[in-house]
Design a protein that fits this description.
single chain
Length: about 280
């Protein structure tokens, strides 16, 4: 008996295009394949930041110099410097401020990067995580430009780092990793909820005083509260850099390992959240 079901011709087949499921991330191979795009985006951000600026990249030196001068004058009037041992206040404040400036600039620039580049996101495909990653270039260049005069100033202040200086790149990498973890999460959330863009500057202002930027943790925080205070990875990174460069009190290996675990977990979490939101980013931004 012939079948009553209709026969569908090959030409009548329907192709359904559906949204991809949220992925856990972009393969490293694909990121490497778009490495040239990462450099182009970073160069563009640098040109935009310093376009038509009279002093230009010199602001990378003037900002920390002015801040450290104010800090030294302020605590000089108080008659008590928030440092331990024989560490010069100017040297301690300079290391703290430069390192904080790198963290804060990278976090803030990453948080705004997707919104600033929404016209690009909706026109062509590329791994969108490259946009917030490229936004760290401005903070890094500012830091590198200020590094040479800062090193000369530290030597003039009598800082003799010794072997702990070998650990300075690790502390710096930890601070940058913490900035990337926070920046990735905030960039994706800011693309969805514009309120985040108003919250980030406020968080950076709070962080300036909550973290040991212009003071040393051991000089301000009571010893019994230091382990709790150093659950903040940024505080551990700043204290670690001071120990490496100006001989301040070290943060301790337990706090360092805890901070490293927190930063690593934060990177994994932020990476997954970013790519989970990325699947609908172009439609919602």
């Amino acid at each position: 008996m012939p079948s009553s079901e209709p026969v569908v011709a090959a030409s009548d087949a329907v192709l359904v295009i559906d949204a991809a499921r949220p992925s856990a991330g972009v393969p490293v191979r694909e990121l490497l394949r778009h490495g040239d795009l990462l450099l182009i985006l970073a160069q563009r951000d640098l040109k935009v930041r310093y376009r038509q600026a009279v002093i230009g990249i010199g602001w990378a030196v003037l900002r920390p110099a002015a801040t450290v001068a104010i800090v030294v004058a302020f605590f000089g009037l108080l008659g008590k410097a928030p440092v331990t041992g024989e560490t010069p206040l100017a040297a301690s404040a300079l290391v703290g401020y430069l390192s904080w400036q790198l963290f804060a600039a990278a976090t803030a620039d990453m948080s705004e990067s997707l919104v600033r580049n929404r016209h690009v996101l909706t026109k062509v495909y590329f791994p969108r995580v490259l946009i917030p990653l490229s936004a760290t270039a401005v903070g890094l260049v500012d830091y590198l430009v200020a590094l040479l005069p800062a090193a000369a100033f530290l030597a003039w202040q009598g800082a003799r780092p010794g072997w702990p200086m070998l650990f300075a790149p690790l502390w710096l990498a930890g601070l940058l990793a913490a900035a990337v973890a926070g920046g990735l999460l905030l960039s994706a959330l800011n693309a969805r909820y514009r309120d985040v863009g108003h919250v980030v500057p406020f968080l950076m202002q709070l962080g300036f005083f909550a973290c040991p930027v212009i003071y040393e943790s051991a000089a301000i925080i009571p010893e019994r509260y230091l382990p709790i205070y150093r659950l903040n990875p940024v505080a551990v990174g700043l204290d670690g850099l001071r120990w490496s460069l100006v001989g301040a009190s070290p943060p301790g290996w337990t706090s360092t390992l805890v901070a490293a675990a927190l930063v690593g977990g934060g990177l994994v979490f932020s990476w997954r959240v970013f790519h989970w939101l990325d699947s609908t980013l172009a439609d919602r931004i």
